[in-house]
């Protein structure tokens, strides 16, 4: 992907750091979007440089704020932990070794009554992020595009079926990544789209033979 004004100038944000605050808030938003709504509980792991600097840079405030739906410019981020307590969000924070090859990495485990997700992401500077793993599957999602995450049986023709359905709805694919547990096992397909994907299309993908689930992940701010 080429440079954007966002990547050159950085985000509009509550400081102090684009990588340790703005990027972390966006990772929190991504975890919320992947879960499909507000979490009731979260476990956050800060790794690499985050492990020693997250308190000083307000990374804990930022990620909790993002998980509650706040963007990086939200003036409530400095009060995020207080608001989390008021809303009954159960959270724990831990530190450890790097979860990724990138030094600014974190893990978010989030759950509610309907679902539970585990996400590993990195903050690459300037507010830019990359989600590298969801529930053990390798992905590459930067939050700049509306995206689909599809779990399906590893069968011939699955890519063609889903791509054809999107094309029939005039939805262009910007990027696609495939990952599988083993030949013939469970496979993961992540698709970044140029346009938003409507609920009917998401539902139709989820109802296709051999598709286990289809999640829509909105872009983050």
Report on this model:
With 221 residues, the chain is α+β, with helices and mostly antiparallel strands. The protein has two domains: 5-141, D-3-phosphoglycerate dehydrogenase, domain 3 (60s Ribosomal Protein L30, Chain: A, 2-Layer Sandwich), CATH 3.30.1330.90; 147-217, Alpha-Beta Plaits (2-Layer Sandwich), CATH 3.30.70.260. It contains seven helices and ten strands. It has helices spanning 5-9, 18-35, 50-53, 59-67, 80-87, 158-168, 199-206; strands spanning 41-48, 90-96, 104-111, 116-125, 128-134, 137-141, 147-153, 173-180, 186-193, 211-217. Strands 2-1-3-4-5-6 form a six-stranded mixed beta sheet. The longest helix is centred in the first third of the chain and has 18 residues, at 18-35.
Can you give keywords for this protein?
60s Ribosomal Protein L30, Chain: A, 34% strand, 221 residues, Alpha-Beta Plaits, 4-stranded antiparallel beta sheet, single chain, 2 domains, alpha+beta, globular, 6-stranded mixed beta sheet
Helix fraction bin = 25-40%
Sheet bearing the most strands, described? Answer: 6 strands, mixed
Termini Cα gap:
17 Å
Q: Output the radius of gyration.
A: 17 Å
Molecular shape: globular
Please indicate the percent range of residues in DSSP E strands (runs of 2 or more): 25-35%
SS element count, helices: 7
CATH superfamily of the largest domain: D-3-phosphoglycerate dehydrogenase, domain 3
Using DSSP, what is the number of strands? 10
Helix and strand composition category? alpha+beta
Overall pLDDT confidence: 89
Q: Which series of helices and strands comes N to C?
A: HHEHHHEEEEEEHEEHE
Low-confidence stretches: 1-16
- What strand line-up does the widest sheet have? 2-1-3-4-5-6
């Amino acid at each position: 992907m080429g440079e954007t004004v966002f990547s050159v100038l950085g985000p509009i944000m509550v400081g102090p750091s684009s990588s340790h605050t703005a990027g972390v808030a966006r990772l929190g938003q991504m975890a919320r979007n992947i879960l499909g709504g507000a979490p009731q509980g979260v476990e956050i792991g800060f790794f690499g440089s985050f492990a020693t600097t997250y308190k000083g840079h307000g990374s804990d405030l930022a990620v909790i704020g993002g998980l509650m739906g706040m963007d990086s410019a939200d003036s409530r981020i400095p009060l995020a932990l207080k608001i989390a307590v008021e809303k009954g969000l159960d959270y724990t924070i831990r530190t450890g070794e790097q979860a990724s090859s990138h030094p600014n990495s974190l893990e978010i485990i989030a759950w509610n009554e309907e679902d539970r997700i585990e996400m590993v992401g990195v903050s690459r500077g300037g507010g830019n992020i990359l989600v590298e793993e969801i529930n053990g599957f390798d992905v590459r999602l930067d939050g700049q595009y509306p995206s689909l995450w599809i779990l399906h049986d590893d069968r011939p023709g699955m890519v063609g079926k889903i791509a054809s359905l999107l094309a029939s709805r005039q939805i262009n694919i910007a990027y696609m990544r495939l990952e599988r547990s083993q030949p013939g096992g469970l496979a993961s397909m992540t698709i970044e789209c140029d346009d938003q994907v409507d609920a009917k299309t998401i539902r139709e993908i989820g109802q296709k033979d051999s598709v286990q689930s289809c999640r829509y992940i909105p872009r983050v701010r």
